[in-house]
Amino acid sequence: MVTPPKQSPATQAITAGRAHSGKSLAPALWASSTWESDGLDDANRRATSTRHNDFYSRYANPTVEQFEHAVAELEGAEAALAFGSGMGAIAATVFALCGTGSHIVAQRQLYAGTLAFLQGPCQRMGIDVTFIDVSTPGAFAEAVIPGRTMLVIAESPSNPRLELADLDELGSIRGPLTLVDSTFATPLGQQPLAHGVDISLHSATKGIAGHNDATLGVIAGDCDLLDDIWAYAVLHGSTPSPFDALNALRGIRTLGVRTRQQNESARSVAVMLADHPMVS
After folding, report:
1. Neighbouring C-alpha atoms within 13 Å toward the C-beta of 49
2. Which residues contact 154 (CB under 8 A, 6 or more apart)?
3. Cα angle vertex 71, ends 66, 74, to 5°?
4. What are the φ/ψ torsions at residue 105 (nearest 5 degrees)?
5. 166 vs 32, 41, 137, 143, 161, CA distance in Å?
6. What b/e string do you get for 37-72 counting C-beta neighbours within 10 Å, with b at 16 or more?
7. Which residues lie closer than 8 Å to 83 by C-beta, 6 or more apart?
8. CA dist., res. 57 & res. 51, Å (int)
9. Tens-digit pLDDT profile for the chain (280 aa)?
10. What is the signed CA dihedral for 10, 12, 14, 16, rounded to 10 degrees?
11. pTM for the model
């Protein structure tokens, strides 16, 4: 067999997530919440399966699954798992991996919702959080408590100040799992997993979907790890809408051209401001 040539990221954005679409260039919308079963044994098999996509849409949904496959392909990941929002992704992932007595290391420069979650519900549940300055080299690793730190959280670029984390430094940390909120970069801007990071997270509401008509979160990483997170997430209930997944998958098709134009526009603004006599 002839191995197909490797696609550019912009082409991947157009072709990813089509495995279950047959010859259709657009994904099918599966709006159903529930599927018919062939009897009690069949229903039991589906109910006890991992991420079975034709049982109950809180467990999985074919349209959402196509969106997940597209994100996984763009991230260079084994799998992806979608949520009803970016905060749904954060909350479900943290609570899936951490419990009373756990310790988290996180940067101070975080999205306000994430910061409020770590300072509020996490503290109330007995999860300790140490905040570090992302601009200090080695700060993440120095704050890790061996045997107790379960998760290291970074956001790069951060919202809204665009602080940057050293992804190679994060990927070299051993012991706790590492997570990067890569929302602002999108998978076409960076791939945290390629730097050794365990989980790449997005509020897909923003750059990935891109058209202000979908609210979604998504994580990408190792299949076994995501299955473990799913086992909690299905109880947490931050269920992604198949309608939003459809819109986000459509948004992914324009991610390449949008990213290129955004970069060009940002550079034009930066050059104009740099040369402006009233800007120091």
Report:
1. 13
2. 106, 107, 134, 140, 165, 167, 170, 178, 179, 180, 181
3. 125
4. -110, 130
5. 43, 50, 8, 15, 16
6. eeeeeeeeebeeeebebbbbbbbbbbbbbbbbbbbb
7. 89, 92, 216, 217, 218, 219, 233, 238, 239, 240
8. 10
9. 556 678 898 899 988 988 878 888 888 999 999 989 889 988 888 888 888 888 889 999 999 999 999 999 999 999 999 999 999 999 999 999 999 999 999 999 999 999 999 999 999 999 999 999 999 999 999 999 999 999 999 999 999 999 999 999 999 999 999 999 999 999 999 999 999 999 999 999 999 999 999 999 999 999 999 999 999 999 999 999 999 999 999 999 999 999 999 999 999 999 999 999 999 8
10. -150
11. 0.93
- What topology does CATH give the domain 53-254? Aspartate Aminotransferase; domain 2 (3.40.640)
Each domain of the chain, given as residue ranges in start order, spans: 53-254
Which residues face 43 on adjacent strands? none
Q: Which residue has the tokens 């798992």?
A: 81
**HEC states along 41-90?**
HHHHHHHCCCCCCCCECCCCCHHHHHHHHHHHHHHCCCEEEEECCHHHHH
Sign of CA dihedral 20, 24, 29, 32: negative
Other residues' Cβ atoms within 10 Å of the Cβ of residue 233: 26
204: amino acid identity, one letter: A
**E strands, 86-230, where?**
103-107, 128-132, 149-155, 177-181, 199-203, 217-221
